[in-house]
Amino acid sequence: MKEQQRTTLLSLLIVLPSIILVGVFIYGFIGNTLYISLTDWGHGSAGLALHPEKHFVGLDNYKQIFTGFVYGRFRQDLVNAVFYSLFLVVGSLFFGFLFAVLLDRKIKGEGFFRTLFLYPMALAFIVTGTIWRWLLAPSGGLNILPTFIGLPAIKFLWTSSKVTVLQFNWQNLPRIFFIIVAVVSAVMLVRTLHGERQKKKIVKHSIIFGVSIIYIWILHPILPPILPFKEMHGYNLGTLGISIASVWQYSGYTMALYLAGLRGLPETIRESAQLDGANEFIYYWKIAIPNMRPITMSAVIVVAHISLKLFDLIYAMAGADNANTGHPSINMYLTTFRANNFAVGAAISVVLFVLAALFIVPYLIDNYRTRRAG
Q: Which domain holds residue 83?
């Protein structure tokens, strides 16, 4: 018993320095940032003063960035961040799985192609941004490729286009959110009814669907709008070039994950599928992908988290002052270190922190439940 206590005490002493460092330099700084976001540091008094005045203002900074007239650019940056995440996640998963399937077929020169696909991962975002800024230059790069076969040059502005599609009114954002929730909950409810028919899941999805419908059809028309004016946002085509560059860099990462997953599947599964008459497409679509769900979930979490940290890639390709390709991280930099509005900059960073948590926390909860069930 004494030996066990001594071992436990020794283990605690070994990890104690790490716990203290993490507590101070990670969670302590997160807490300090949250506190600053609830103050007016940088609003009226000099933000860079030796002893700046800070007064507690509650959630006023968050109200300003989501509903204030001055912070319309932040709201567009937030919309851009959603599209950046969607393109990066979907694009890297699609091309990563495609490359993994090609390599899984044991093609000639597999080592060369594996290195070729993984190489972009070795580059820093700032290097990737510099390379793709040259490739997507308006008067060069990809735009002049058709001229080599006698066709006119492309005139698309990859990182500076002002064309916006899929526009919506920011006032309707809550309604759009609940429409998405209603659709997802309806799909989950149908799947549950056609599956194991677990009572708890049926009740949960039914409640979520019902609350969403009540808000969409009853509450939204009578509640005051979140903005006193019409403000249109949407997908700016100037972000397309940055999305392509980010997908190019991280497709190799998802390829490595999927290739390890495919090579880890028992060969008997493929042989059984072939005996049952399944072709290669059916094997990968119906068998391989469902068996690699944990890998897909891990890839989604990591890539989605990275999509919230595209600061250096955007900075290198389009600069910090290009409003069309904005991102909350760029906005945080400009607000904090150019405008010296530290409170609002801290509020933006907290919003980014919450967005990252929305990806990570559900994954950790699901992983924890899976381990307990196992």
A: 21-373
